[in-house]
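I had to read the description of the data format several times before I understood it. Each protein is reduced to its one-letter sequence and a matching series of backbone shape codes. The format is easy to grasp once an entry is in front of the reader. For illustration, here is how one protein appears when written out as sequence plus structure tokens:
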Amino acid sequence: MDLKIALIQSSLVWGDVSRNLSDIDRKLREAGEWDIVLLPEMFPAGAMMVKREAEEMIVERERIAGCYEEVKRKMQEWACRSGALVMGSTVCREGERYYNRLIATFPDGETKYYDKRHCFRMGGENEYFTPGQERLVFEYKGVTIAAFICYDLRFPVWSRNVEKYDLAVYIANWPASRRNVWQTLLRARAIENQCYVAGVNCVGTDNSGLVYAGDSALIDAKGEIVRAAYEGKEEIVVAGLDLEALAMFRKKFAVLDDRDSFELT
């Protein structure tokens, strides 16, 4: 049986947590029945790594981190109301450290977390956020899911399918100037890891002038596009995960059985 996954390709209002949460809430209220819902990276406030002075960045980081519990509660509400797994990221503070944290909320109230491993150096993200140390791989409704954030997509070792996960999720704020890279790497990660890959990105223009084209898509294990969003358009992309077809392909063409073994450190 197919599982339905929804990619919420939204235009984010940069820095306005209340408005973004309200917008996502409206979209989910108007939606159908899904098993998995994916929101863009930093969906409550938009990309953090835009051109700002250091002092302004520190203040903004603290302000968004202060909304963390509100964001988590809202995601738990969406998961409970829709009966779906809901995933998206925001700023989280623990002591003196700040993380770009993916929150995975389940209909029963359970919550799992993934802290972005690769902070985007060229945007200065590594100066304001601490990289995560643990991968997040879990099972939901018979699907084994691995969670990643944006820049992680460029690092195949971190994405490596050592657990035979069925679906790799990449939530992002990925600029349109590098959309070809985004599209190419989503397909590459699907092919090399012999899994479905779901990438969800935002659209619109941030307050430093960066444009985001979206290009959210679900890719199958052969690198074929199952469903993709239109460029630059707010859209909810819904597609099915055919686990039986994935299992048959892996059995017939058992690439993962020949992968090299090593441990991440």
